[in-house]
From TrEMBL:
Record family assignment: Belongs to the universal ribosomal protein uL11 family.
Binding partners and assembly: Part of the ribosomal stalk of the 50S ribosomal subunit. Interacts with L10 and the large rRNA to form the base of the stalk. L10 forms an elongated spine to which L12 dimers bind in a sequential fashion forming a multimeric L10(L12)X complex.
PROSITE patterns to which the protein is assigned, alphabetical: RIBOSOMAL_L11 (PS00359)
Domain Large ribosomal subunit protein uL11 N-terminal: 10-62
GO molecular function: large ribosomal subunit rRNA binding; structural constituent of ribosome
Function: Forms part of the ribosomal stalk which helps the ribosome interact with GTP-bound translation factors.
Family matches, as CDD domains: Ribosomal_L11
Span of domain Large ribosomal subunit protein uL11 C-terminal: 67-135
Post-translational modification: One or more lysine residues are methylated.
Designated name of the protein: Large ribosomal subunit protein uL11
């Protein structure tokens, strides 16, 4: 029989540095047991922040799953900055390359809601943009995508116009030599002056 889950907690500790404290006290688990297990599992991650999901059972036992470091941490690390821009719309806090973006996306892929590297790169690029970090080479890619979309729309519009022209020509050929009925409703200016 499966254990009854009492609570699921999401916390974040620095790798290899978890200590008993207020964030663990309210969970009802044996804190030294958790911190020892967490620190042993994350000691090789060089003090980076590690999100952890702790599942607490009715018998006070627990299991935990560690996640990858937050994207913002990896972006700051790659850009060599301590924090993002205060106003990401006007300030640039730093720059990362497209290769660094790909590395971060590959690292974070297991925790993202996609399994495609291109989608993961777009998610990480969005985080970078919100931090005021520019991804070199990404603007060109966005412009190329916009140009390709505009070209596809223009081709679609041209195709629609060609189809309408062909239909009009076919109608003209069908009606050639037939009488056309015209209703004239306009009055001459002389009649309007009377």
């Amino acid at each position: 029989m499966a254990k009854e889950i009492v609570r699921i907690a999401k916390l974040e500790f620095n790798a290899g540095q978890a200590k008993p404290g207020p964030e663990l006290a309210g969970l009802g688990i044996v804190m030294p047991e958790f911190t020892r297990a967490f620190n042993d599992q994350t000691k090789d991650r060089n003090g980076e922040p590690v999100p952890v999901v702790i599942t607490i059972y009715k018998d006070k036992s627990f299991t935990f799953e560690t996640k990858t470091a937050p994207a913002a941490f990896k972006i700051k690390q790659a850009a060599g900055i301590k924090s993002g821009a205060a106003n990401s719309k006007t300030d640039i806090a730093g720059k990362i390359t497209l290769e660094q973006l790909r590395e971060i996306a590959e690292y974070k892929l297991t925790d993202l809601n996609t399994n495609k590297i291109d989608s993961a790169m777009k998610q990480i690029a969005g985080t970078a943009k919100n931090m005021g970090v520019v991804v070199e080479g990404l603007v060109d890619m966005a412009e190329a995508e916009a140009a390709a979309k505009a070209a596809a729309q223009a081709a679609s519009a041209a195709s629609a116009k060609d189809a309408a022209l062909a239909e009009a020509q076919a109608t003209a050929i069908e009606t050639k030599g037939q009488a056309i009925e015209v209703n004239a409703t306009a009055q001459s200016s002389e009649e309007g002056d009377k």
